[in-house]
Write a structure and sequence with these properties.
mainly beta, Cathepsin D, subunit A, domain 1, four-stranded mixed β-sheet, two-stranded parallel sheet, 8 strands, about 5% helix
Length: about 110
């Protein structure tokens, strides 16, 4: 969410990703001038890419918080990731694969 606009999207959790990186399309839908954000260059085994950071409100299930999210400089609709800063550092996440259970609470809520 940003400036009263909301967009729904599906992103993959990447515990190795430092930041949340989303397709620039979603930033544009939210009315964000993508290139006006904080420029960051990421280097991966697949190559390098640039992205621009903007503060938005993230919502997952019934949890909501403000975070800096990066939007790809070039379109990349298949590569939406939520990473450590901005998402994983805000929640307590439990995953029990063999039971197909996911446990999610805000990080600041007592256990």
């Amino acid at each position: 969410m940003h400036n009263g606009k909301t967009v729904d999207l599906t992103a993959r959790l990447d515990t190795g990703a430092a930041d949340c990186v989303l397709d620039r399309f979603f930033g544009e839908v939210l009315g964000i001038d993508v290139e006006s954000g904080m420029r960051q260059v990421y280097r991966t085994v697949a190559g390098s890419f640039a992205a621009y950071g903007h503060e938005v409100t993230l919502r997952t299930l019934d949890l909501e918080w403000s975070a800096v999210v990066y939007f790809y400089a070039a379109a990349s609709r298949q590569n939406n990731f939520i990473g450590r800063r901005g998402w994983l550092d805000r929640v307590r996440l439990g995953l029990v694969h063999y039971d197909q259970r996911l446990y999610l609470n805000p990080y600041d809520r007592p256990q």
